[in-house]
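Final paragraph of the annual report: two paired records, presented back to back.
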Amino acid sequence: MNTVLTTDAIRLSGSATSRDDAIAEVGAMLVSAGAVTPEYVDAMFARESSVSTYMGNLLAIPHGTNESKDEILRSAVAVVRYDSELDWGGFPVRFVIGIAGKGDSHMEVLGAIAMVFSDLSAVDRLIDANSTDEVLSILGLDAA
């Protein structure tokens, strides 16, 4: 699990101002990381149009559809924190975490992220984090 998220795939201050812009932003990070093809980003939009990826506690986890599995080159996670809340279908979001998982490898990552975001004090620490290393440490995805 130690290679799915690196500090260069964490953005402390995203530029998006809407849900769709945020999906495009985190998707572009996954493409830049060499984890997915641009078609995977299209599948992230398709997934969002069929079911919201809002998870609660200021978190959304956009990801592709089952049909887009072939567009995943390697498992990876990209994290974007926003200075202001984005409207995610009527819900406030400050963290957008894009996930691409080869096979079922993303399930462990999803579980780890869910645990962190179920703890409001951890969410507060993520909001206050001053470095990508700090975000990585709080998410707990920096250890195998």
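The closing record of the year follows.
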Amino acid sequence: MADRIERLPDSDRPHAEIIDDEMIRLLFHNGAPALLAGLLVAVLVYTVLSSYLGHTQPAIWLSLYALLALGRLVIVKFAGDLGDPTNTQLRPAIHYYTMTSLLSGIAWASLLLFYTPDSPVIAQLFLLVVVSGVPISALAAHSVYPPVFTAFALPIFLGLMAWAVFGASDFKPQFLGLTIMYMILLITSARAYYRSMHDALLARLRNRELVDMLSRANRELETLAYIDPVTGLANRRQFQRQLELALQTCQRQEQTLALLLVDLDHFKEINDSYGHHIGDRLLQRTAECLLSALGGPRTASSLAARYGGDEFILALPDTSTGQAVQLGETILQELSTTVTFGDIDCSPTATIGIAMFPDDARSVDKLTRHADMAMYAAKNLGRNRLHVYNSGEIRSVDPAAAEAVS
């Protein structure tokens, strides 16, 4: 039961509708064993009746009941994928199943027609026990869906009441009162069983929804923990974790890695002059430029992140110094293009510091520190340029000489 309720994906449906459909599935799931057990009891009844009534009438009764039981089995068997909450055959199937259950109840109640005061006492007792006992035996299987339980049990209750009034030779009021109390007791038990199953399914459904809500909340928290909310890039914490893994991979495969630290020039002045909303849009445009320079959305082989307030960082495995310089020049050119935000024109520039693994450093901390040193050296030399940290020294790369470096 728990597995089935967990497979229900359409949590937007009303709880009552979901639980009602699940009750129908439970009814069909448990229906076949109950129907087969009923057939075995019907065969036993036939053998008892035929022993003192002959074979004709009991055989007719058994054939009719067997046909109804087989029809109900066919409905259970070919109703389709009952575990699919979008199954359109579920409602027609339960409609026909309820109708055949009513006919089966009438067939079972008709056994009282074979009751005669002249028949052996043991046969009379057997019939009464069988007729009154069948609703009890079907209680667990049928009460999960009250319309089916009512359709099957009501004809039997009415038959027993009719027998108490017209068939019993003695103690008619007592038998009638006993039948009524039996009916009330059985209906009360069926309602209690149904309510118990209903509440259990409702609790599982609500628990499932709580688990889903918790999972969504955890995913949102994870996003907040590792993704920069303004640019959608990885944040500093996530980048450092990924860079550590990338350095380990490059070391195993004996590859280089280029680290580019990109810092927007005069970003504080833009924030102060135009407001933080313009600053955020500029940060978003910078992230787009970085991704565009990388050839599109981030891939597993390249890392991009917002490293600080106006700092971005790129890690490029299997990249030479010349290739890193070419990429840096592309980024500088992209970022220096005038951009319009409403009625505000911005002409931002950036400064880039580059450090190489393993020549400049072999650890995350040292590599980022050396890229930061290269970037600040470029700032001191006039901004809107890039510098490469190399062998403990800072060297400048003139934009015009970028191709010569590569």
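The chain has two domains: 2-214, 236-405. This concludes the annual technical report; the extension proposal builds directly on these records.
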